[in-house]
């Protein structure tokens, strides 16, 4: 099974001032590791968008120390919705989505833009592309 995001490029979201951001992890990858990181981040994205997103992801990697895919983050504060408002084929999957949105709320997450909930290391997803899937 192949899972891909839409071929429509989302608008880059703005960041709300005053919301905690994860510290820069530093950039110390070898060229081979950098190539692997970019390939991993692009794997769910249609190939026609790679030329646009690869430089953006490289910039994130160099300035933040990892690729978050901020462009794929929904705008504003994430809030859990009633379970029946989520797409899905089973209640358990929809409930999982409710939990993710609840944990990524500005009021709850430690670093919501970087998908970090509790503590300094726990992430809900590796990046925003996985969140969208």
Automatic annotation (TrEMBL):
InterPro entries: Urocanase-like (IPR023637), Urocanase_N (IPR035400), Urocanase_sf (IPR036190)
Superkingdom field: Bacteria
Matches recorded under Gene3D superfamilies: Urocanase superfamily (3.40.1770.10)
SUPFAM superfamilies: Urocanase (SSF111326)
GO biological process assignments: L-histidine catabolic process
Residue ranges annotated for the Urocanase N-terminal domain, each copy included: 78-132
Pfam family, any one: Urocanase_N
Any one GO molecular-function label of the UniProt entry: urocanate hydratase activity
Annotated protein name in UniProt: Urocanate hydratase
């Amino acid at each position: 099974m192949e899972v891909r995001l839409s071929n429509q490029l989302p608008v880059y979201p703005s960041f709300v001032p005053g919301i905690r951001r994860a510290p820069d992890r530093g950039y110390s990858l070898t060229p081979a590791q950098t190539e692997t990181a970019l390939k991993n981040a692009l794997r769910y994205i249609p190939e026609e968008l790679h030329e646009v997103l690869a430089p953006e992801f490289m910039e994130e990697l160099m300035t933040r120390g990892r690729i978050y895919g901020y462009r794929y983050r929904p705008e504003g504060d994430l809030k859990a919705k009633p379970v029946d408002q989520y797409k899905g084929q089973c209640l358990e999957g929809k409930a999982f989505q409710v939990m993710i949105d609840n944990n990524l709320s500005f009021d709850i997450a430690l670093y919501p833009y970087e998908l970090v909930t509790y503590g300094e290391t726990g992430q809900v997803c590796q990046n925003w592309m996985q969140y969208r899937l």
